[in-house]
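Sample entry (239 residues):
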Amino acid sequence: MLQRIHFILIVNICMTFFGHSKCFSQTANAEIYLDEIKTELNKKWPQNRTINLVFHGHSVPAGYWHNSEVHTLDSYPHIVLEKIKEKYPYSVVNIIITAKGGENSINGSKRIESDVLNLKPEILFIDYSLNDVSQNLEDTRIAWSLMIDKALKQQVKIILITPSPDQRENILDQNNRLVINSRQVESLSKEFRIGLANVMPLFQQISHKNGTLIEVMSHVNHPNRLGHEIIASEIFKWF
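Predicted structure, serialized as tokens:
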């Protein structure tokens, strides 16, 4: 009985001061979040239309591997496209990459209108945490929030992506910079009730099991094809 009273008091406080959504926020429901877009992807000609998926971020979604080589067709945006085309054979889908090697979210947020939203994306994917570790955590939160807010105002669906590994970082340490940034991304997905491709735990499992991440990496901080497939599979759950 006492627990029930406490719960009611918490709900009343949330409703009075913050609004219900602020206290009970959660990531969007993967079962229904992209329902309208999945309906469009299933349509046949002449009812179908072009669907733009925009991937905004740093060198990983851009397809960089070792020696500055760019393996576009082995990067997760295009692996996602392969999966979408297999499931939705009548769809017309554009994969558009606005990612920029070496960029962090603070600089990426400055391009959100000129380089991203002007492309009229149906879904925006954001992946910046790997490069955000060198920036102030609060500044990056502001930058991510700005991008999310501007996209939501244009009715764009958003899926945030937690960071892929950097082999110089111990991602099994809960106080590690990448892990902290990963938690921030997850928190943002809940705050705005948008999508999340939470890839960090998948790479943590590999690191814990094998004691190394070398099998999924092409470079110190760039995944290989297998690493990109892991990210793509987590994204594709939303489809």
